[in-house]
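@channel anyone free to eyeball this complex?
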Amino acid sequence: TQLLEQSPQFLSIQEGENLTVYCNSSSVFSSLQWYRQEPGEGPVLLVTVVTGGEVKKLKRLTFQFGDARKDSSLHITAAQPGDTGLYLCAGVMGYSTLTFGKGTMLLVSP
Amino acid sequence: DTGVSQDPRHKITKRGQNVTFRCDPISEHNRLYWYRQTLGQGPEFLTYFQNEAQLEKSRLLSDRFSAERPKGSFSTLEIQRTEQGDSAMYLCASSAYWGGAGELFFGEGSRLTVL
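replying in thread with the prediction:
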């Protein structure tokens, strides 16, 4: 059973388009993180959200944590080829370790 | 470079052989994690250390897998009697844990291919 479900699994878009990817669970998380991973590299942290309903913006990326702290979304405005990569959400429950979803593979074509 | 380093980056071995991966974390980080990642999947947690203490090892995939962090600095992950299903990327990460959600800093991984 996958604790964190990410959708879509794969997304191919043109440069300039907007997109949203989702991370859902039936479990409550004390915090949730988003990472981006490029081929041949380890994941790199983008953001941590802690409070239900929290919204964080990083330039063209907007992250939202659901009110019940069970789900999250990542919205990218005006996608660029440099945004290409595997986007992973990862959750922490209590004092447990970080659990990752399967990821959304994003391909942005020029 | 002061990031997490892993060695070797690539390892090709024959089924039944033992392999060992090494991870050197960021020096001031007290926690060290091992994850496994297969194609099209997110990282799967294996085990972690706080300093030299291994706090969770029940998620190691079988008794063929073992990890050590003898002096609370570098760590090794050993796989004995490798099987083709062990082929994957093995990722190491470290963090400075002081309670709450911390950032994990990942290495570039060690890719294992078992023939």
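from a first look: The interface with chain A takes residues 4, 33, 35, 40-45, 48, 56, 91, 93, 100-101, 103-109 of chain B (CB under 8 Å).
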